[in-house]
Write a structure and sequence with these properties.
By secondary structure, this protein is α+β, with helices and mostly antiparallel strands. The chain contains 9 helices and 13 strands. The strands form 2 sheets. Strands 2-1-3-4-5-6-7-8 form an 8-stranded mixed β-sheet, with helices on both faces. Strands 10-9-11-13-12 form a 5-stranded mixed β-sheet, with helices on both faces. The mean pLDDT is 91. Bound molecules: 2,5-anhydro-1,6-di-O-phosphono-D-mannitol and magnesium ion. Magnesium ion binds next to strand 3.
């Protein structure tokens, strides 16, 4: 029987990658496969979100006598559980948990990696059937293997990530991840229940025509950011404007679209919240790593996101990310107007 070798599952892909590195232990591949497994389970629940009135309200007990968890809590418990019971992760940090969780058992203490994640980003969009996602970041531990992981393992700058990715629960479900070797996207094929390689070697177009920002905060942005937004709206042959504004309020969906089509996403600081809203470790760092590996750029307005030395697990940062030439334009306008 002829087998269609054009279809490569996530598992096959990670194993194939391993074959290129005969000395690799396979631990990172195992971790990515664990994340893929958790994502499939969360995907099933996300798809049931509209049935909440039938299956039982969140926080209540359903007809089977099971407690119905909020989806973000469900996703958090699921990712944590899969990573804890796997063999590749020594501890996790999550948007849903105040402090990092060190697994501290015989097998986890031997693991090389720690993982940070936002289990369900954009969860305010669940009720209205808008795409949401999971974002994750993987670091190699700096603490001694064989001992429990430490806080320092999680507080490393983004340029030390060994892998990062996201899952988008959208019109189809996709897992996109980056390592130093590049960025690849896998679409969940419901007929076989597997993520299959659909977007090999993703590159972010150097230039795009989409800008994504919350316009409601316009008067709270710095002058430089306001000037850049105005320039996006200007009909100007040199930059191909006016650009199209697209902002759905689910960063995974907004950045995924801009990564594929070219564009810029911004969550700047505001007068009320100078550090913006987004979290460095499990929202900005992973996207910065992915988009930069695809040829784009990510900054906090003055510095590369990946160079920021974190001091706290849940710290926030202003965030600008996207196509290289659009990021250059932003930089030149903000430097001119903010000295
Ligand atoms: P969340 O982690 O509470 O879901 O918040 C993060 C989300 C991002 O996905 C999105 O880009 C942003 O919040 C939208 O915020 P705003 O409504 O302030 O524009
Ligand atoms: Mg979030």
């Amino acid at each position: 029987m002829a087998i269609n070798r054009n279809i490569q599952t996530l598992d096959e892909f990670t194993i194939q990658e391993l074959r290129n590195f005969p000395r690799a232990t396979g631990e990172l591949s195992g971790l990515l496969r664990d994340i893929g497994l958790a994502a499939k389970r969360v995907n099933v629940e996300v798809n049931k979100a509209g049935l909440v009135d039938i299956l039982g309200d969140y926080g209540t007990t359903n007809v089977q006598g099971e407690e119905v968890k909020k989806l973000d809590v469900f996703a958090n418990d699921h990712f944590t559980g899969v990573l804890q019971h796997g063999i590749s992760c020594a501890g996790i940090g999550s948007e849903e948990i105040d402090d990092v969780v060190i697994f501290d058992d015989e097998i986890s203490n031997q693991s090389k990696y720690v993982c940070l994640f936002d289990p369900l980003d954009g969860s305010s969009n669940i009720d209205v059937n808008v795409s949401i996602g999971t974002i994750f970041s993987v670091f190699r531990r700096v603490s001694e293997i064989g001992k429990p992981a430490t806080k320092e393992d999680f507080l490393q700058p983004g340029n030390r990530q060994v892998a990062a990715g996201y899952v988008i629960y959208g019109s189809s479900t996709m897992l996109v991840y980056a390592t130093k070797r590049g960025v690849n996207g896998f679409t969940l094929d419901p007929s076989i229940g597997e993520f299959t390689l659909s977007h090999p070697n993703i590159k972010c177009p150097e230039k795009g025509k989409i800008y994504s920002v919350n316009h409601g905060n316009y008067y709270q942005y710095s002058e430089g950011v306001q000037k850049y937004i105005e320039s996006c709206q200007r009909k100007d042959k040199s930059n191909g404007g006016p650009y199209t504004q697209r902002y759905i309020g689910s960063m995974v969906a907004d950045v995924h679209r801009n990564l594929i089509k070219g564009g810029i996403f911004m969550y700047p600081g505001t007068t009320d919240k100078p550090n913006g809203k987004l979290r460095l470790l499990y929202e900005c760092n992973p996207f910065a790593f992915i988009v930069e590996k695809a040829g784009g750029v990510a900054t906090n307005g003055t510095q590369s996101i990946l160079d920021i030395q974190p001091t706290a697990v849940h710290q926030r940062t202003p965030f600008f990310i996207g196509s290289k030439l659009m990021m250059d334009e932003l930089k030149s306008l903000t430097t001119q107007n903010e000295q």
